[in-house]
Amino acid sequence: MRAFSYERVETPTAAAAAAAARPDAKFIAGGTNLLDLMKLQIETPAHLIDVNGLKLDRIEPTDDGGLRIGALVRNTALAADERVRRDYGVLSRALLAGASGQLRNRATTAGNLLQRTRCPYFYDTAQPCNKRQPGSGCSAIGGFSRQLAVIGSSEACIATHPSDMAVAMRALDAKVETVKPDGATREIPISDFHRLPGDTPHIETVLQAGELITAVTLPKPAGGKHIYRKVRDRASYAFALVSVAAVIQRDGSGRIALGGVAHKPWRREAAETELPRGAKATVGALLEGAKPTHDNAFKLNLVERTLGAVLVEARG
Amino acid sequence: MPTPENLNLNRRALMVAAGACATLPVMSAGAARAQPAPIGESVKSGVTFTVNGEARSLDLDTRTTLLDALREHLHLTGTKKGCDHGQCGACTVIVDGQRINSCLTLAIMHPSADVTTIEGLGTPERLHPMQAAFVKHDGFQCGYCTPGQICSSVAMLDEIKAGIPSHVSSDLTRVPQLTEAEIRERMSGNICRCGAYSNIVEAVTEVGGRQG
């Protein structure tokens, strides 16, 4: 690990200002992803800004009947929150399907959104990777790509976003609240928060220099049946091959987001009009234009079957 | 020929010696890299926390993980370093009542924290019930993952008591039960390369049942 200086900050604006003043700085909260990457020298910040003292660890009702989840709420606390379990079950289920008990106790809401891909070539510093070293090339294309993206990828990158939580939040139409170094705040719909790789796969979100996530808000409960179904190589403690976050209403309408298939949680609202016609029609629209590799073309079938199982469960 | 005294090498000393041998080829491979990146000046920072009921103050390189602080600075070598990347769970300790991977957190991030390691749960003379159950049910073979398994399972039972659901809980709104499926899912962050899982489940079930 490279040496770094370290500071604690008292307010979100101070944190953002401190980060803007030092382009070589990173925020640290749970640290479960960042320290892993620092040990491998994939992340090499010269300065860490510890945001754990910012008191952003509460879950509160919003004026419009939703919930505001503080950026520092740990994954365990969010999954176990009574209101989340009752009204946003897909979010609890997604969180509990991810990582291990130890990691969920430390990992934060904002950190989960910002975690980096687990593409094996991003992790292998001996190989070119446009995300790790812009312009160096993509080793995954033509390489071992079984886990990687089937849609929304580019000539520069076929990595996936690894989060389960973010997939559920996409199905729930969450919004990301931030503060900028000058104290200005903004609200970013989660659909716009993560970027597709394009020519700049190293830029993963629309956050600007120093901008700090302060909360994630959920709209008022949508009702319906909440299901998160994750398919992976082990029964526990593994990243998704594919996952489906679903909120399905009694009349068969609903919302669907996918994990494990793209550089961001994958949702196409237009495809959801196909839901009453079943999984095949829905996935046809949802994954139209997919460009899988030889190794991961199986994901197209797997998504269809997983959604099929979700729709059966929703009727039950 | 080794004399009986030479054979009196304890297990830890043997591991240290073996570790030093195993490290050599890795170091020379690193030194052969064309242009090692500049490492930068190390930065020190102070931290005070409580470990197993005792206040400890340390002046540490900022890079020091909680795991390395415990093992290398406080010489509490019960907590093990397995993968050092949060994948195996051997480094699990209990911080402010919650189990965490001590390899994936910096020691300086825990001012005033209350840290419990395997040494703080019990002693050879007065075993913690979970330690006694692991012995009784033979919940280990080589023993390397055991301190992490025990710290993890003790805190895991508290999570069930607190009503925290898991991936295998059938109903999110009901109180989770202490079933074998629940234990296996909740302990999936602790890998046992010897495969003592079935005996670990028996040990945890016995202690969890007694508590409940």
Written account of the structure:
- The complex is a heterodimer of chains A (316) and B (212).
- Chain A has 12 helices and 11 strands.
- Chain A has helices at residues 12-21, 34-39, 75-80, 82-87, 89-96, 101-106, 109-114, 120-123, 165-171, 190-193, 279-286, 298-315; strands at 5-8, 25-28, 47-50, 59-61, 67-70, 175-179, 185-189, 212-218, 225-231, 242-248, 254-259.
- In chain A, a hairpin with a 5-residue loop joins strand 4 (59-61) and strand 5 (67-70).
- In chain A, helix 5 runs antiparallel to helix 9 and helix 11 (279-286) crosses helix 12.
- With 212 residues, chain B is α+β, with helices and mostly antiparallel strands.
- Chain B is 37% helix and 13% strand.
- Chain B has helices spanning 11-31, 66-73, 118-121, 129-136, 146-161, 180-186, 197-211; strands spanning 44-51, 54-61, 92-95, 98-101, 114-116.
- In chain B, strands 2-1-5-3-4 form a 5-stranded mixed sheet, with helices on both faces.
- The N and C termini of chain B lie far apart (56 Å).
- The A-B interface holds A 1-6, 28, 30-32, 35-36, 39, 41, 44, 46, 48, 50, 52, 76, 79-80, 85-86, 89, 92-93, 96-97, 99-103, 105-106, 235-237 and B 37, 39-43, 45, 61-63, 65, 84-86, 89, 92, 98-101, 104-106, 108-109, 152, 156, 159, 162-167, 169, 172-173, 184-190.
Based on the model shown, name its key terms.
A: 316 residues, alpha+beta, 5-stranded antiparallel β-sheet, 3-stranded parallel β-sheet, 12 helices, B: 212 residues, 5-stranded mixed β-sheet, 5 strands, 37% helix, disordered N terminus
Most extensive chain interface and residues per partner: A-B, 39 and 44 residues
Radius of gyration of chain A: 19 Å
- H-E string of chain B: HEEHEEEHHHHH
Instruction: Provide the β-strand percentage band of chain B.
Output: 5-15%
Number of helices of chain A: 12
User: Helices and strands of chain A: which structural class?
Assistant: alpha+beta
Determine the fraction of residues in helical runs of chain A and give it as a percent range. 25-40%
N- and C-termini, Cα separation of chain B? 56 Å
Fraction in helix of chain B: 25-40%
User: Describe the biggest sheet of chain B?
Assistant: 5 strands, mixed
Main sheet overview of chain A: 5 strands, antiparallel
Q: How many strands of chain A?
A: 11
Q: Report the average pLDDT across residues of chain A.
A: 98
What string, H for helix and E for strand, traces the elements of chain A in order? EHEHEEEHHHHHHHEEHEEEEHH
Unreliably modeled segments of chain A: none
What's the overall average pLDDT of chain B, rounded? Answer: 87
Instruction: Let me know the number of strands of chain B.
Output: 5
- Oligomerization: heterodimer
